[in-house]
What does this fold into?
Amino acid sequence: MKPVYFDHAATTPVDPRVFEAMTPFFCERFGNPSEPHRLGREARSAVDQARARVAALLGAGENEIVFTAGGTEADNLALFGSLARLQPGHLVVSAVEHPAVMEAARALNGRGWDVDYVPVDGDGVVDREAYRAAFRDDTRLVSVMTANNVVGTVQPVAELARIAHQKGALFHTDAVQAVGSLPVDVDELGVDMLSLSGHKLHGPKGVGALYVRRGTRLQPLLHGGGQERRLRSGTENVPGIVGLGVAMTLACEAMPEVRPRLERLRDRLVAGVLARVPEVTLLGHPTDRLPGNAAFAVRYVEGESLLLRLDARGFTVSSGSACAAGSDEPSPVVQALGVRPEDAHGSLRVSLGRENTEEEVDAFLDALPPIVDELRRMSPLYAKR
It folds into this structure.
C-alpha cells in the first residue's frame, strides 16, 4: 500500500488545479502589481480577482481583505495592529490558542498589556463563566480561535464575539483550521477580524489573509510601499494570492460533499481506535470538532516514538505533543484540557483530508494496535501500572 498522509492539520498538498492557476504568474505574467504597464495591470487584476473570491467566500467586502504571508502574520497584525494606537490595557485569549496568538499575547504583556488566558473544559470548549468574568473596563481585544489545531474542537465564536462586543471589546478569531473545512461567514460569526492561511486548504504555503471589518482601525506591522491599503507593505506574492483564491473556491465548492465524507471517515477511525487499543482517550469535543480531526491520549506511550513507528509503516501523522517546532514538551493545548502531563506525552493527532479513503483508515486501524502494544512493553510505567 502506498504511503498514507494523515497530517492535514499541519499542511495540505497543493491541489493540481491551484498549481495550474498559479504557474503563469511565475514566468509569463510576472509583473509587479504596482506598475501601470501591461504586465503590472495583469498582476493587479489577478490580485483583485483573488481578493474578490476570498471576500465573497467569507461574506465580506473586498476592501476588508488584507493579504499576508500566512496565518501567523495575520494573527500578529490583528493583535498588534489593533492595539498599537491604544494605551496598554487588557486583552483576553483562550488557553488553547495557536502559538501565533499566544506568543503575540506574551509579547504584548511585555509591553504593558495585561493578559487573561481563559480556561477550557475537558472537551476544549471555552469556559463561558470564566470568559465573562475575565472582562474588565479596559478590555480592548479578545482572540479565540474558531477551531483548534491540535484537538479539533470548534468554539462557539458567535456567542463569544457577542459577549465581547457587549463589553466594548474587539473580537479576533484565528480561523486557519476552519476555513475550507467548515462554513465561515464573518457576519454570522460577528467577528471584527479573522485570520486564514492558504496551505491548510490545498493552497500554497507563504500566503494568508486577515479579514478586517470596515471601521476597525489597525496600525501596520511592516512599513514601505503602502500595499494592501497601507496595512501590509511589500510587493504582493501574486502567484500565492492567486493560489489562495482558487484554493478557497475549490474547498468551499467541494465542502457539501467532502465534509460529511470526512466526518464518516473520522468517526470510523475514532471508533476503531477506541475499540482496538485499551487505555486511550479521545481528545476534544466528541461532536463539535473539525470534520477530519481525531486526537487521542495514548497512555504509557511516548507520542514521538508512536509517530516514528507509524511513519516507518507508511502513515504520516502528528504526535500532537509539540505545539511549536523543536519542542519536546507536552502540548499546552492537551494539558489545558486537564490531561495529565504523562498522558499528554502520548498524544496522537490524525487529521484526514479529502483524498483519504476508507481503506487507508482500516489499514491504519490494523497497524496501530501492535505498535502501541510493542511500545508499552518497552515502558517501565506500563509494567508498574
